Amino acid sequence: MDKLVISGPTRLKGEVTISGAKNAAVAILPATLLIEGVCRIENLPNISDVKMYCKILETLGAKITWLSEHEIEIDSSNISCTQASIDLTSKFRASYYLLGSLLGRCGQAEVGLPGGCNLGARPIDQHIKAFEALGAKVEVAQGKITAKVKRLIGTSIYMDIVSVGATINAILAAVLADGTTTIDNAAKEPHIVDVANFLNTMGADIRGAGTDVIKINGVKKLHGNTSYSVVPDQIEAGTFMLAAVASKGDITIKNCIPEHLDCITAKIVEIGGTVEDYGDSIRVYMNKRPTKATVKTLPYPGYPTDLQPQMGVVLSMANGTSMIHESIWESRFQYTAELNKMGAKITAQGKSAVFEGVSELTGAPIYATDLRAGAALIIAGIVAHGDTQLYNIDHIDRGYENIEEKFRKLGANIQRVVE
Ligand code: EPU
């Protein structure tokens, strides 16, 4: 198992280029199953979740050609199988998108119950509700979900909860359905807009993505022969913004969309940092200890849960006592126990945590408890005095491309040790 060895403290300085968005890529890849033909996807992040998805698509009959490290061609002309390997699909969360795609394309799907980061209960009742509303019969048994339908029929779907995954899955299932589907109380994250843009480029008719009402007029077929570039990763960009603040550094973040980061920018300014917007890049710098703050995670455009642990590292060293309320996931404060090993003073209970700011962290052996926690703990290692060994970094490799290389270019003393 690999580990990262980090020696700090370092003030991060320089430029970093953001990769394509993980959470858009893991929805666009299964969406290619809806296309009877060939399409090209550019700006794919080189991460293990993308590689895993490509492996699964191949087992279903798609032909994948890697054109470069970040660009692939997928030929989904012949989909020979609608039963995805339970072993592979149960390893990560986004495998649930195979349900919407295979149902839309073939009228049937079998997928292992999704795995992924342990963030507490991760129900999929809203996905099932959407498929059933469109006419499918859905069964959950023996660790897998099976869905079947003769013809998907457009309908109105009201989401009881704002869910990224259920919104995208409902779109995937509705694209080739007969008639019009309306999704009310839809999620509005940038990757939802990106999936809709991808499908529209391939011939779908989806309107309103990015608002809470999405309308999908079913089309007979999606054509291929088109290329699409994945949107820059909002969460990776936010991770480096917060790394700049935590390390009292100065980072220019290239290839990002500043308006996707508005609420992070606002929080950084509130705690004393500076953010300059250059259209497709931003510069973030900080030269003092952050002030205390209160943060509540919310669906987009609110403060994202996927940047909560990174903000936790910043607030663990703020001047005064801060508070974070996590309103999306039940169990996203496991990283606080690791930060406390480094001298932080955090009390987490249920969905809230109190951060009594300390003036410095010290290096320690620590464990990445999930993907975003892992990124946050790298930042903690960079700003801490002394050496940190970070274990369980396969979580981080699932969603961040070349993360230690990117931090090294910013001046961090960080090495991957293969054990
Ligand atoms: N929920 C339900 N029922 C459902 C679906 C969701 O109750 O059928 C609840 C969840 O339990 C949660 C809330 O609704 O409390 C929001 O969940 P959502 O469905 O939006 O999450 P997701 O689609 O499973 C995606 C990202 C997560 C990110 C969340 C929230 C992907 C592959 N994953 O998950 O990303 O935290 O949206 O923004 O897109 C990550 O990248 O580290 C990560 C965990």
Query: Share of helix among residues?
Result: 25-40%
Number of domains: 2
Q: Under the CATH scheme, which architecture of the largest domain would be assigned?
A: Alpha-beta prism
Uncertain spans: none
Overall pLDDT metric: 96
- Name of the CATH superfamily of the largest domain: Enolpyruvate transferase domain
Keywords:
alpha+beta, UDP-n-acetylglucosamine1-carboxyvinyl-transferase, Chain, 4-stranded mixed sheet, 23 strands, binds uridine-diphosphate-2(N-acetylglucosaminyl) butyric acid
Précis, in short:
With 419 residues, the chain is an alpha+beta fold. The chain folds into two domains: 2-19 and 232-418, Enolpyruvate transferase domain (UDP-n-acetylglucosamine1-carboxyvinyl-transferase, Chain), CATH 3.65.10; 22-229, UDP-n-acetylglucosamine1-carboxyvinyl-transferase, Chain (Alpha-beta prism), CATH 3.65.10. 31% of the residues lie in helices and 26% in strands.
